[in-house]
Amino acid sequence: MSNTLEIKNLNVSIGDKQILKDFSLTVPKGEVHAIMGPNGTGKSTLAKAMAGHPDYEVTSGEVIIDGENIMELEADERSREGLFLAFQYPMEIPGVTIANFIRAALNARLPDDEELNAPDYYKALYAKMDMLKIDRKFTSRSVNDGFSGGEKKRCEILQMAMLEPKYAVLDETDSGLDIDALKIVAEGVNSMRGENLGALVITHYQRLLDYIVPDVVHVMYDGRIVKSGPKELALELESKGYEWVKELAGEVAAS
Amino acid sequence: MSESSHAENPIREAFARHIEDLDTAPFWWKNAKTESYEKFESLANPTRRDEEWRFATIKGLELADVRFAALPSISDAAALVERSNFIEKFSGRFVFGDDQTLQADRLSPELEEKGVIWAPLKEAVAKHGDLLKDYFMKQEADLGSEKFAALHQAFMENGALLYVPKGVEIEDAFVVYNWSINAGSAIFPHTLVITEDFAKVKLVEANLSATEDTAAFSCGVNHIFAGVGSTVDYTLLQNFNEQTLGFQINSNIAGKDSNVKTISVNVGCRRYRSETHGQIKGSGSKVEMLSLAVADNEQEIDQRTLQTHSAPHAVSDLLFKNALIDNARTIFSGLIKVDPGAQQTDAYQTNRNLLLSGTAEANSLPGLEIDANDVKCSHGATTSQIEDDEIFYMLARGIPRAKAEELIVYGFFEEILERISCETVAENARQIIQSKFKKRQTK
Predict the structure, then answer these.
(1) Number of structural domains, chain A?
(2) CA-CA distances (angstroms) from residue B437 to B327, B357, B410?
């Protein structure tokens, strides 16, 4: 099926331990889906395995972007196919400036004999930085080097805005953010919402979903989705707590 | 074993021919060469037990694969001259191919009038004998390659002589291209820079191979004599092909209040040995010794340095940075030596290595030997590994692995590249590094 991000029966292990168990989920383009669940349930594993992290062994299953299975591709190829992962813990890359980093990522998407037009590039970069309230001086700073938690997360969203992915996975983008930073990040994401983007927002807390209001909420436990529903499900989960999730998981397992 | 007695010592045989071919050269020149040859033969080949050759690969240094025979004539001279285009605006340019002069761009009449000398050594032997008698090979090799310095003097036949008289300041750089052309060839690039009081000059040397697949040998020497208050800026771009065995034996003498900056950019060679000696002989002088190397595959880059402070109130600042990929090896061995009289010395020595693979090997041997009591000296060596997660982060943005490595390496080298005073040369250095990563991407 085209125009969807489809995760089909994904099984993922780290070492001997199976983390994702026949995980399946579909995000149509234009929608924002949230995945909530307790710690250790496999949310970050899902994000990293989709992006192609070498530590995560995909034993079976597919991730299909607009009809194409990307699981046979290298991590960089998956990104160029239109999958974006906003990291929970963005890496510091000493000596590589944000401007050069994003430029390299954009150049990698162009044919071999083409280069970005520098003035156009900076114009676009500054516009997105202004939107995310990132000081323009940051362009010449090394990627995430010495950034605060909030700065790192805004830098992730800046990259997302510049790369214009088809599908984005936001892995605990709210962690470590105060409410002001959270609002800025959420505004950035909301500005990109629309028919050209599907997003999967992974979070432990309902708070983020006040600002990035999802179309669908999925509850994850022990490597699989145990319940899906409208945005109100997040509130229900918040009030009933994760103990409720365990009960749901029991029902799924029994059925 | 060969039956002919000549063939048992092909290097001596080649030397005899070399001297024969020099029949018009002055006696003192040929005599010095003969003495050098005998010195070469009398000195033992290095062994790994020698402190100065610790960690180095010794195999191959007996030079059995090198063809010292006369080289065939050069057919594609015009094309090589065309490729000798790193700098458009220069004060003078020599293009050498297998030590033959392919192109000599001479001084402007204005500089000539001021007494500047810019001559191929082949010519200078006859025309500037007195100058050469005072300065040619007058800085001892003392970091392990005495034998190869002697070989250099025995066989060298060309190079560049640059003499800048008192008070003459020259903005545009002088440029020397040394092309290695024929398979098995041995070349002996030589650059000699002499500045009188308060002169100012820049020299850029580029050591290159005409093609990628010719195994060759290069044994080069650069000597700088910086007079009182003078400024010498020397940049060496070494991008021989990865079949080449290269030696580079460099030394400078910094006079009172002089500024000497040497920068080496090392990208090529299968195995490369560089020796750099900063001799701080004048008080108040400042010597900067900078180097960057990017090594991949099975490359070995072996660097030995010495900062000798024999005058007070002087500064020396050494920074050698190496990036290693695949199974590459580097060796950095450096010593700061401060003589008893050299009070108020500021001397720094830093070696930083960046490993981009788990199988690369960076060896570091920093050292201090201080006989003065009022000095500031520091030395340090660090080796760090690029973390897999850093690479993954870049991959996750769609940046291919080789490009990711390239970006990280550029970032690592930037503090050296930004100290290259001529922006065009810095740009050339970046391009040489980039061409290496391009090769990796198409592999």
Answers:
(1) 1
(2) 16, 15, 11
